[in-house]
Specification:
The chain is of the alpha/beta class. The chain contains 4 helices and 5 strands; from the N terminus they run ββαβαβαβα. It is globular, with a radius of gyration of 13 Å.
């Protein structure tokens, strides 16, 4: 399964088809954002994404696990109805805080962890 997405601010500036090579690039980018970042916070904006492959779901779970091990958080925003249902059916919605838009996610994740 593939998806079209615009991943703004993450090094992926244009609409892309999530094929295996692109998913590997996204996976490496997520790793660079999550490794060694105590209490790191990551918002993933899914505007224009209508479907995800199992590989991409695995990338999200791995990013969640990396951040959780360091008391960090990952939040998702702008999920298409189909993706919301997918996350609910797979119970992955229990792992991620989901927001209706990127602004809410940024605001919410900024207060999701105690201040230093």
């Amino acid at each position: 399964m593939s998806a079209r997405a615009e991943a703004r601010g993450s090094g992926f500036d244009t609409s892309v088809k999530f094929c295996a090579g692109v998913i590997e690039q996204i996976e490496e980018h997520f790793k660079s954002l999550t490794r060694g970042r105590p209490e790191g916070r990551l918002v993933v904006d899914f505007a224009n994404v209508q479907a995800l492959s199992s590989k991409m779901l695995g990338v999200l779970v791995t990013a969640h696990n990396e951040l959780s091990e360091q008391d960090g958080k990952i939040s998702l925003s702008n999920l298409h109805r189909t993706l919301q249902k997918l996350l609910q059916v797979t119970r992955l919605s229990d792992l991620f805080k989901i927001y209706p838009d990127r602004e809410s996610a940024i605001e919410g994740i900024g207060t999701a962890l105690p201040a230093d």
